[in-house]
Design a protein that fits this description.
The mean pLDDT is 83. α2 crosses α3. This protein is 31% helix and 37% strand. It is built from four helices and eight strands. By secondary structure, it is α+β, with helices and mostly antiparallel strands. It has one domain.
Length: 166
């Protein structure tokens, strides 16, 4: 993805993490699954860039196909970080802390089904779910167990904890 002047301006703000979104019907779909960006810059009819401030959790889907069928289907749930260790990932600049990384058609479908289940329980906002629960999410997909429910009390406690941090 070529970056134009507006994206370069976003990169000059050192705390922002940029997510490249790209949609071409029946060819590729790289998009956010959940998360509220601080800023969205539309590049053209097919591409846009979302900018997240530090300590935000988001879901990112990458899907591609060619004339023979699906070639790439990945779901990543990541947390933006200001400093420290980050992991490089295609479409995420400069990188993020990867909480969940699912690759393959069947695993991605299972993960999306689980996300829908959790979204109903969390009241529609998956970015408030604690980081530790995302580890359970990844492990449940690996061992193909039934999804564990997310309790609203757990989300409330996590939100209160996040508010108490200066």
């Amino acid at each position: 993805m070529r970056l134009d002047a507006s994206v370069v301006r976003c990169q000059q703000v050192p705390d922002l993490t940029l997510i490249c979104q790209h949609f071409v019907p029946d060819v590729c779909n790289h998009r956010l699954r959940f998360g509220v960006p601080q800023l969205v810059t539309k590049l053209d009819n097919y591409r846009s860039v979302a900018a997240f401030s530090p300590d935000k959790i988001f879901g990112y889907i990458r899907w591609q196909r060619n004339e023979y069928g699906t070639t790439l289907w990945r779901l990543v749930i990541a947390k933006t970080v200001q400093d420290g260790r980050i992991q490089k990932y295609a479409g995420i600049l400069p990188g993020a802390h990867i909480l969940v990384n699912v690759s393959g058609v069947n695993a991605a479908r299972q993960a999306l089904t689980r996300l829908d289940y959790w979204e109903k329980q969390a009241g529609g906002d998956l970015s408030n779910i604690p980081e530790t629960r995302w580890r359970h999410f990844q492990n449940g997909i690996i061992i193909r167990s039934a999804p564990r429910p997310v309790k609203s009390r757990e989300i409330e406690l996590h939100a209160a904890f996040r508010r108490s941090i200066p």
